[in-house]
Amino acid sequence: MVHPSRIQKGLTLLAAYFLVVVLLFPYVVMLVTALKSRSEVYSIPPTFFPREWTVSNFLEIWTVIPLSTYIWNTILIATGSTLLTLFCAIPAAYVLSRRQFVGKRAYMYLVLITQMFSPIVLLVGLFRVIQWLGLMDSIWGLVLVNAAFTQAFAIWLLTGYFSTIPRELEQAAWIDGCSKLKTLVKIVLPLATPGIITTVIFVFIMAWNEFVVALTIISSDVSRPLTVGIYAFFGKYDVQWQYLFATSLVATIPVIILFLAIEKYLVSGLTAGGVKD
Amino acid sequence: MEIDKVPALKKLTRDLKIKPRKMTWEDIVTHPYLWLLPSLILMFIVTFIPIVELFITSFSRVSLAGVRHEITGFENYVAVSSKPTFYMVLKNTLIWTVAVVGFSTILSLGIAILLNQKFIGRRLVRAALIVPWAVSLIITSAIWKWILDYNYGTLNYLLSKFNLINENIYWLASPSLSFPLMIWVGIFVTLPFTSFVILSGLQTISNDLYEAASIDGADGWKRFFFITLPLIKQPLTVSVVLNTIYVFNSFPIIWTITQGDPVNQTDTVITYLYKLAFQTNKMGEAAAVSVISFLLLLAFTIVYVSIVLRRER
């Protein structure tokens, strides 16, 4: 990085483009397979690019499985989880970044410990709690679980962001007679927008892609999300690869767009999260 | 500022007969504990109660229908630890976690250093790096299962097309091939997060440091080991600890590609406990395996974090 020579620059480019190929290769395979007919997917010798390009898979998937229901459930789950996460994490992160109080350290350790659990290690216990709450086979059970397991991450990220906002701005607002709540809503939250957007998208994507809990507590098509729904294409003896990949593409494109939208915040967001108070 | 602590102000308040402020509505509304309450309630219901329930279940007899009966002490732990499968699965978990976290950290270090330089198409590389992160693990795992398919898979097709193999290879039939391949998939999906965390650390290092070091005659490797590595220790620690937790707990890759077959030989603790709980209905034993997994992770985190913190002092 000090004064890279021509050869170094060439090697950098070579490595970079090789990396792109490795990273995108599986997804190119997914795309080309989704554009093949079933008979071509199961043909010997196989093909890489389709002999005949077809979009029929993208039309048929809507009728072979209740895809629109799955998509709607996934949207509800991801949106619900994101809202609940924010509702709980914003106030917590705000007081953690601004106030000193008894039990602050204890609370931060508590958050850290919950980060160590994944839903799957707790699944046996979680299953019980969901049963008691009467949320078996309900998307609201998933919302609750997703929001709880993204708390640690959201609080961590938001606390970092809130810490970067100068306190003087708030103090100035208080002196002008603005109440503390109003200051938070009118001054702090607008300034923390990039942090909140990053959190929203992270949580949204985590909830969008969640699999294990949904696989365990959802049993009917009416409440099934996409990740579990596409499992229907794994038959006992064969897999409907062309449908699986067409559905996967439909499920994935919104997420990739969201992720690319926050790409520029990604690095700064992760840095802010690492700031110590 | 505390009024009582400043004598002049104290006298002034006495003279003016200002009473100390009472707790107002605003004080109650802005009390820190109140603001922590929503997240506390959420974590209490979804994390704390299940943990307690898990521990109790692990020490109880549970019927096949899932009804919890009396506490029986260590019965479930004895049942689990008397099976040779459990030790094989533990060994798999150790290999899986160490290999995925280790290799992905090393590779990510290279990727982060690459992305920290300016070159044409850097945005494209960063965008490509996001894709495996954004796509659901289920989907990425399914694609790899397809690529590695014996008859129709892309890998066998490409290898035979370039005359590298004469006969198709059964990539997923024996654990000696399928397990390393799943480790590769694990590395593949771990790269984005790790690279971005390390990159965030790299971007805080001032270029002046490198300039100064090269004036003093430090070559590339020296600059890496004496400037870069020490300065990114914090993000590196964060990524190793978080990745170890994520990778240890990983479920979709193995579940989709081999489902632990043949006969548990590619199971990790996590897929094993899922099978115990929801396929063979041994909730008590599954709970015991969960508790053991949690204790292992806790031990790792304490040891690792304390080593890192000690070195810092």
Description:
- Chain A is mostly helical and 277 residues long.
- In chain A, 73% of the residues lie in helices and 0% in strands.
- Chain A has 14 helices and no strands.
- Chain A has helices at residues 6-34, 38-41, 56-64, 67-98, 104-116, 123-132, 139-163, 167-175, 180-191, 193-209, 212-217, 226-229, 241-261, 263-273.
- In chain A, helix 1 (6-34) crosses helix 13 (241-261) and helix 3 crosses helix 13 (241-261).
- Mean pLDDT of chain A is 84; it is low at 273-277.
- Chain B has 313 residues and is mainly α.
- Chain B contains 15 helices and two strands.
- Chain B has helices spanning 7-16, 25-29, 32-58, 75-81, 84-115, 122-134, 137-147, 154-161, 175-202, 207-215, 220-231, 233-248, 252-257, 269-278, 283-312; strands spanning 60-62, 68-71.
- In chain B, strands 1-2 form a two-stranded antiparallel sheet.
- In chain B, a hairpin with a 5-residue loop joins strand 1 (60-62) and strand 2 (68-71).
- In chain B, helix 4 packs across helix 15 (283-312), helix 9 (175-202) runs antiparallel to helix 12 and helix 12 packs antiparallel against helix 15.
- The longest helix of chain B is centred in the N-terminal third of the chain and has 32 residues, at 84-115.
- The two termini of chain B are 34 Å apart.
- In chain B, 40% of the residues are buried.
- The mean pLDDT of chain B is 85.
- The chains are: A mainly alpha (277), B mainly alpha (313).
- The interface between A and B is large, with 96 and 98 residues.
